[in-house]
Amino acid sequence: MNAIEIKNIGLKYGSVVALQDISFEIERGELFGLIGPDGAGKTSLFRILTTLLLADSGTATVDGLDVVRDYKQIRNRVGYMPGRFSLYQDLTVEENLNFFATVFGTTIEENYHLIKDIYQQIEPFKNRRAGKLSGGMKQKLALSCALIHKPSVLFLDEPTTGVDPVSRKEFWEMLKRLKAQGITILVSTPYMDEAKLCDRIAFIQNGKILSINTPEKIIADFPYKIYAVEAENNYEILKQLRENPAVRSVFSFGDSLHVIFNGELRIENGQLNVQTEKNNYQLSIVNCQFKEITPTIEDCFMALVNE
Amino acid sequence: MFRAFVKKEFYHILRDKRTILILLVMPIVQIILFGFAITTEVKDTPMAILDLSKDNATRQITERLAASNYFTLVRELHNSEEVEKAFQTGSAKLVVVFSENFQENIIHTGEAAVQVIVDATDPNQASTFANYASNIINQWRMENGEWRMNQNNNSQFSTLNSQLRIVPEIKMLYNPQMKGAYNFVPGVMGLVLVLICAMMTSVSIVREKEMGTMEVLLVSPVKPIYILLAKITPYFALSIINLTTILLLSVFVLGVPIMGNLFLLILLSLLFIFVGLSLGVLISNIVETQVAAMLISAVVMMMPTMLLSGMMFPIESMPKILQWISVIPPNRWYVEGVIKLMIMGVDAKYVMKEFAILGFMAIVLMTVSLKKFNIRIER
What we know:
By secondary structure, chain A is of the alpha+beta class.
């Protein structure tokens, strides 16, 4: 039995389609990433799985329990951390944790081993009000609260949004450790660089799943050659490339541009030639280096979105 | 689990120092404001006199007016221009003008002119002033009829005068001193309780929705009824504290007695608190933001509560349609019941109607709000 099974889930807000015929499964003990930009439908899907929203069509099970019929049992055994910081800002760290432990009929002591790694880092501030914590500490507290009852499935909706890079890294290390304890984790993120830390990922855009696979497989299956360009004036080059019919896509990527051509790129006598099915294009771009690279997850996502 | 919930609610309330201060101090301020400042009682109204005859009779009447609690003589005017000035500068609210040869005229013709001029910007007050002033003047006339006849031997007038001697004896039931406090204490009780129960409860539930904590609570084994009951409990406690403060203040500071059964009064109040709390829960089910909760409580509940509960305007003199609407706000029945129990001191059987209506409202509202409580979140 899979930890989560989603079959043909659809959801509309009025006339706006939020989710469209979503189907996939998540295995037990898997760290599954839902990757997509804001407004892609990640939160809606999370809410359906955590029994907070009713889908318009389709079915879903969590831990083998139907999200509509067995919502009470599901609420007993999942951990949910909403995208927005959703703890009591006027309660202290310890009071928050205590409260959620009690709500789930347990105590901090009973499951301390689960949250120890995370909670130890914020324990020095346990008498501080949650509203006065930094972003990273808030996330750690929220995760502790979501974990305190030893859930079998953990739902983390954009847990690292608004968190500094160091805390983000720590956070993902924690997720690895939780996974090692056998907890299934569904995590959503808009950060592509976090995708490769998951066992499997699903790209979601405009309420549709674009692709599901392991990050390695997604990169290996990338159908194009991709080049990185570094130049002094990236913006000028970007504009030129955009106008060129030989260029399939070009995106700014940090300090460089990632370019995909419509055909084979050849460099002859310092001249750039692109051989497409019909024509041979010459690129008159000087003073820059084209270097073939392994695609990143973001390249894969952008290519999928473009299609 | 329930205890942890209630504890959490108390933390929320007690840590929000400003709100708790408002909640506890507001009833005290309201009672004192209504009791001493905003009063319809006529007391020490500044009065000026324009006495054109300056004889025994006018002096006596002036003294009587000035000696009463209602008026204070602030000025003696000398000509009619000064009358208008006295009103314009606000130094007098009431001017009494005696015509020339006042006593002479009474003695010889039995008629003399006295004019009472009142600032009628507040018409209710103005007619009260005028009434009090003419009562005092009439009283003087009654008592001095014989003194005048003895002096004058005007037998014709004396018979006329004795025929006119029909003195109605007015008895002010339940509130013999005509204290305003008797009227507004029940009103303020209703107002404060509905404010705390309905408004604060709805705001505090909606806050959980707005902050997103409701999402986390819903994805937990907590039964919705526990969430609601835990929300209600601290406000219930607060309401009881406020009820006690109001009753103590009105008895010991304003001198409004509790004529009827204290136990019944408290029972009625508890019932009303329960109605208010269920209203609060109901509002929180409908709206999504704290501002909306506040607005609904204020506009949809406070306004009709104040205007239609009979606290400010008597229900009997409203247009029929408003009278029909006025049966809806629970305050109306509570205030009516409190007046009966506290001021009139009636037996239990005369407040059965109020108990029944409020009880009915409590059951209906609580059932509806529990049924409507969303176990999921709004789209």
